[in-house]
Amino acid sequence: MSLFPYVFRDMMRPLKLLEQHMKLAEEIFHPTTFGAWNNRPRYTIELGDDISKRDSVIQDKDKFQVKVDVQDFKPEEIIVKTLDGNAIQIEAKHEEKQVDNDGFILKQLVRRFVLPRGHDLKSAVSSLSSDGVLTITAPRNVEGLEEKVIPITHESKETPKEGK
After folding, report:
1. Nearest to residue 138, comparing CAs of 64, 85, 79?
2. pTM across the whole model
3. Distances 31 to 25, 37, 42 between C-alpha atoms, Å
4. What is the H or E stretch that residue 113 is in?
5. Mean pLDDT for the stretch of residues 66-94
6. What angle (nearest 5°) sits at the alpha carbon of residue 76, between those of residues 137 and 105?
């Protein structure tokens, strides 16, 4: 009789115990155990649901205008700056410590808007209304737009001559 099975039996015992525990976990967390939980209706978040209904971007022939709801922030907590020569970034940060010193509230807003070509970022103005809507307007740069006619070149295909 060989000692080989007895040696491996002792070595395999911890692995068999682990395998038994894993099977027990599979039985506990089997999908049929939590069927009601898994079959509940899923709520989908539409793109833009997190953006306030008062936020808007308007572009017409005269201007590019952005309206952002910043009513949760004080005017001194809002910064509007230009980036990369054709983008506007709005940053707002509000920090508030609770009266009982057990809590801390931090609200932060960062929005970046890229202006379409042909708008004058240097002439952009911003205003904050009494109801907390920040409006940024960049006028259209009329003299910056030039019309240019692009010539069309015609290329003809030469057919190979037969007999050569």
Report:
1. 64
2. 0.55
3. 12, 9, 17
4. strand 104-114
5. 89
6. 115
CB-based contact 136:76 (threshold 8 Å):
no
CB 69 within 8 Å of CB 55: yes
Q: Residue 12 in 3-state DSSP?
A: helix
CB 63 within 8 A of CB 139: yes
User: pLDDT confidence of 46, banded at 50, 70, 90?
Assistant: very low
Torsion of CA 24, 30, 33, 39, to 10 degrees: 160
Which segment of 44-48, 85-89, 122-126, 146-150 scores lowest on mean pLDDT?
44-48
Query: Which pair of structure tokens corresponds to residue 76?
Result: 């001194």
Length of the chain as a residue count = 164
Distance, in Å, from the CA atom of 129 to the CA atom of 75, rounded to the nearest integer, reads 10
Higher-pLDDT residue of 20 and 82 is 82
Binding residues for Zn(2+): 94, 96
Place of tokens 């609770």: 98
With 0-12 / 13-18 / 19 or more C-beta atoms within 10 angstroms meaning exposed / middle / buried, residue 69 is middle
In whole angstroms, what separates CA 48 from the centre of its chain?
10
The binding site comprises 94, 96
Domains of the chain are 56-139 (2.60.40.790)
Which amino acid is it at 59? Q
